[in-house]
């Protein structure tokens, strides 16, 4: 595939993927703000514990089938039927297993009454996930991000928001969250099946099974290790601290990471098929990887560290006063969030190039050092657990540096330069917003107006960072790829108007094409 065609498909996919990201995040923030005032931290904690167990099992349910469908260079009808059928059967089997073994959840979380029935009912998500994996992978392989985006928005609005809010106000407590999760997953799976109904079907082929799961099983193993590494902190909180502390911790985690995860996930869903298509063209991979790091770091580091500086106002405004104990954890988790998300692109590149053994090794090591850190720091409550997670993410990020250097022939200076704009902007943003917290707080202003000032200041500085920092480096990277995709600022569409606006802010020099 020609470079311009791939770039155009990538840009088109990003537009729809980020539309879904923005809308779903706005809905999530609104729904969370309402539910946090109707439900208790303990009720959120019960569902968080059940979800950790079920998401762990979800990796077995899908067994990497969806990722294999995206990555496999040649895919035929037998491959698709085999992936769909096997993932569905595994999901059903795991659901039955979880229903039978659910009492073990009570032993794992001894301070959490109600965890067993919640786990049993929510195990239905394993069946739903088994039917979703292959269809979602097919849509991603085709760069069909418009239907994916519309489906995600609709399923969250109708499945989660409508059900969750209605049942919460009706007094169903924790079951409102359970029903909302199942409703969203069911609508998503149904829509994907309808979109791919001409391609999926039942059938098993030994050849296809081996081809899919020789890759998919390793992806699934990596996913399990990565999931354990990113959720061991929640398990630890649930086992030792109980549902209230777990609810506080998981809401802090959500505020620190969800908006950034949505942003990065939207990008990676588009980039993984693109990376896979050019997996043998290492110079193009190198250029795309460095450009991705430069742009993403310049955005997510100041956003995340800004949340750390404004942690008090974020908690008070979004969740309310009953969640104030989560402020220190939110600050620490926000400082760590960019580390894990930037690491994600190196991990994704390993996956796209089938460099999986080293990824498995790093994932296992990550689990080990996080466990040691939790043993050392968990006695300090959710703040200690957040600190353990932050240090673990730093170590994981550093572990990928030599891998990327070898895989793409990168120097340390190349990697440092790609992070530079974002790190400087992050320090300035975090310190500046904390200064506004202290200064405006002494004037007697409440949390919502202070947060409004902080957000305005952070947005203005972020815009300057993207368009002006280091001579407009970030905007040049973006602009060059937009030009290559045919979005050069001509026309009257939304993208064209935004491009012209940012061109004006950046100056003429940013029009130089930076695409490889």
Computed over alpha carbons, the radius of gyration is: 23 Å
Number of helices: 20
Give the number of domains.
2
Strand content: under 5%
Major sheet attributes: none
Spell out the key features of this protein.
516 residues, mainly alpha, 2 domains, 20 helices
Q: What do these coordinates show?
A:
It is a single chain. The relative contact order is 0.11. The chain folds into two domains: 1-217, no CATH class; 241-413 and 425-430, no CATH class. It is 84% helix and 0% strand. It is globular and about 60 Å long. With 516 residues, the chain is mainly alpha-helical. It has helices at 3-38, 41-62, 65-71, 77-101, 103-108, 115-122, 124-141, 145-169, 174-195, 206-240, 243-277, 282-309, 311-319, 327-352, 356-377, 381-408, 412-442, 447-467, 469-484, 494-506. Residues 509-516 have low confidence and may be disordered. The chain starts with a helix and ends in a 10-residue tail after the last helix.
């Amino acid at each position: 595939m020609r470079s311009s065609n791939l770039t155009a498909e990538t840009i088109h996919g990003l537009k729809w993927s980020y539309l879904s990201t923005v809308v779903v995040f706005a809905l999530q923030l609104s729904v969370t703000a309402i539910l946090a005032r109707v439900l208790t931290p303990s009720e959120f904690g019960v569902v968080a514990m059940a979800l950790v167990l079920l998401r762990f099992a979800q990796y077995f349910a899908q067994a990497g089938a969806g990722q294999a469908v995206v990555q496999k260079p040649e895919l035929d009808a037998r491959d698709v039927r085999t992936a769909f059928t096997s993932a569905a059967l595994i999901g059903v089997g795991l659901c039955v297993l979880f229903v039978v073994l659910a009492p073990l959840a009570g032993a794992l979380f001894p301070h959490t009454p109600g965890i067993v029935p919640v786990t049993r009912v929510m195990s239905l998500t394993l069946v739903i996930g088994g039917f979703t994996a292959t269809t979602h992978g097919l849509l991603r392989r085709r760069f069909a991000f418009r239907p994916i985006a519309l489906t995600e928005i609709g399923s969250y609005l109708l499945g989660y928001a409508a059900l969750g809010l209605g049942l919460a106000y009706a007094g169903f407590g924790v079951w409102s969250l359970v029903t909302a999760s199942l409703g969203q997953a069911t609508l998503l799976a149904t829509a994907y099946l309808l979109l791919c109904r001409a391609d999926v079907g039942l059938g098993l082929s030994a050849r296809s099974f081996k081809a899919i799961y020789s890759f998919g099983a390793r992806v699934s193993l990596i996913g399990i290790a990565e999931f354990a590494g990113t959720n061991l902190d929640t398990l630890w909180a649930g086992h030792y601290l109980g549902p209230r502390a777990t609810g506080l911790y998981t809401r802090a985690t959500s505020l620190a990471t969800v908006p950034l995860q949505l942003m990065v996930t939207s990008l990676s869903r588009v980039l993984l098929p693109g990376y896979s298509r050019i997996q043998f063209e290492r110079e193009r991979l190198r250029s795309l990887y460095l450009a991705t790091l430069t742009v993403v770091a310049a955005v997510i580091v100041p956003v995340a560290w800004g949340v750390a500086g404004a942690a008090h106002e974020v908690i008070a405004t979004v969740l309310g006063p009953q969640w104030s104990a989560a402020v220190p954890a939110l600050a620490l988790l926000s400082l760590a969030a960019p580390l894990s998300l930037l690491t994600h692109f190196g991990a994704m590149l390993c996956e796209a190039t089938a460099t999986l053994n080293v990824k498995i090794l790093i994932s296992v090591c990550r689990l080990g050092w996080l466990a040691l850190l939790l043993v050392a720091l968990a006695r300090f409550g959710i703040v200690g657990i957040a600190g353990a997670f932050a240090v673990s993410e730093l170590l994981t990020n550093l572990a990928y540096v030599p891998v990327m250097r070898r895989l793409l022939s990168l120097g340390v200076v190349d990697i440092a330069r790609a992070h530079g704009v974002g790190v400087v902007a992050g320090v300035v943003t975090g310190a500046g917003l904390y200064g506004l917290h202290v200064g405006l707080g002494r004037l007697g202003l409440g949390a919502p107006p202070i947060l409004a000032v902080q957000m305005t200041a952070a947005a203005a500085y972020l815009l300057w960072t993207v368009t002006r920092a280091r001579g407009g480096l970030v905007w040049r990277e973006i602009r060059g790829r937009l030009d290559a995709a045919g979005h050069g600022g001509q026309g009257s569409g939304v993208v064209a108007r935004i491009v012209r606006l940012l061109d004006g802010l950046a100056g003429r020099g940013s029009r130089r094409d930076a695409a490889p």
